[in-house]
Design brief:
Largest sheet: 3 strands, antiparallel
Number of helices: 11
Order of helices and strands: EEEHHHHHHEEHHHHH
Strand order of the largest sheet: 2-1-3
Number of domains: 2
Radius of gyration: 23 Å
Helix content: 55-70%
Structural class: mainly alpha
Number of strands: 5
Strand content: 5-15%
Length: 372
């Protein structure tokens, strides 16, 4: 099997003149002359698991239809109790999916000939932990989205009873754009220089969060909103839950639609951070896709739960900055230093500890301030 190599604990694939690709697995050190262009073999390649993506997408659409068509058919203000219940439901769904996916991997991986001789139970555990780590990172980064949502709804004076509708369609748009970003990322991440560029970008973003002051959000100065107002006339006031109104034969966008566009644009910006961050934890697009989608599905409930308390987590942004620096270092250095893959158990432990400490520090700081 000319051109194949072996690395400690990782599966490698190399081109071969005879067969196109040759799979060679093992746990022996790779020879020093191993080519740098070798890429990790995916456990769940799209061409074999397209049906999984399709079924998962159908499931997501069904859940969203049930959410809007049954539980939130009538516009109403979402209470903290309702938001808490839905938050628990979304988190529980993600954890149940992760466990079922672990059981599937545990059953299926031993049947793959290319994986013969590997510790299939360990591979299944790693995929499960990678999903969990990606889910935690995406959930944590979503806190920044909540700051944006609060500012946008306040700026456009969106009544509380219509906020769920705006976020619902915003989430649908976010799902579409995340799928596109993940598809593009799965292609680009095959090139080592792209991995390094994304890693440096995440490190720079992390340091920016840590050391540079936040700029206030001003939708009026946003180039997308300014372009929208040039292209489409905007109605001066909110008309119920409508995104469009017609007056004297002219179609106007309502402030509700402008708020929706700003939220969509903001999510695209956040995706530039979050998608590479999860790719730093796993090279499996299937895990990136499912963990990202589950985190986004619970974003609305998390907003209504934390909107009034988000200012309490003063030090959380510093924790997020440290997490981004860490995952950036994984891309540019740590994965290579650990034979191609930094242990996912260590990654999950570091990420969880940093976020927990930032939340505890926020709580202590707020208690001291209130006591003073």
């Amino acid at each position: 099997m000319a051109g194949a190599t072996e690395t400690a604990g990782r599966i490698r694939v190399a081109p071969s003149c005879e067969t196109g690709f040759v799979y060679h697995v093992g746990f022996h050190p790779a020879p020093a002359e191993a080519p740098l262009s070798m890429t990790d073999l995916l456990l769940f390649p799209f061409q074999e698991y397209w049906w999984f993506y399709a079924c998962f997408t159908v499931f997501v659409l069904a859940v969203l239809a049930l959410d809007l068509g049954v539980f939130h058919r009538e516009a109403h203000e979402v209470s903290a109790r309702e938001a808490a219940v839905w938050s628990v439901i979304w988190v529980a769904l993600a954890l149940v999916f992760n466990y079922l996916f672990y059981l599937y991997a545990l059953w299926h991986l031993p049947q793959v000939p290319a994986l013969a001789g590997l510790d299939h139970a360990q591979l299944a555990r790693d995929t499960s932990l990678e999903f969990l780590a990606g889910y935690v990172v995406e959930k944590s980064l979503a806190v920044d989205n909540i700051f944006v949502f609060v500012a946008v709804f306040s700026y456009f004076a969106v009544p509380a009873r219509y906020q769920h509708r705006v976020l619902f369609y915003g989430i649908i748009g976010a799902l579409v754009f995340r799928a596109l970003f993940i598809s593009l990322g799965s292609v680009l991440m095959q090139y080592k220089w792209v991995v390094l560029v994304f890693g440096v970008f995440l490190i720079a973003t992390g340091f920016k969060i840590l050391f540079l002051p936040e700029k206030p959000i001003d939708p009026e100065r946003n180039p997308v909103i300014r372009l929208l107002k040039r292209l489409v006339p905007v109605w001066p006031r909110i008309e119920g839950d409508k995104f469009w109104v017609r007056h004297e034969g002219v179609l106007y966008a309502t402030p509700l639609f402008v708020a929706l566009v700003f939220i969509e644009f903001s999510d695209i910006i956040f995706a530039i951070d979050s998608v590479p961050a999860i790719f730093a934890l796993t090279n499996e697009p299937l895990i990136v896709f499912t963990s990202n989608i589950f985190a986004i599905l619970g974003l609305r409930a998390m907003f209504f739960l934390l909107a009034n308390a988000v200012q309490m987590f003063h030090y959380l942004k510093y924790g997020l900055g440290i997490v981004l620096v860490f995952v950036g270092l994984k891309m540019v250095w740590l994965n290579h230093a650990f034979g191609g893959k930094f242990p996912i158990t260590w990654s999950l432990g570091i990420i969880g500890s940093v976020l927990a400490l930032s939340i505890v520090a926020s709580a202590i700081s707020r208690r001291r301030a209130s006591g003073a």
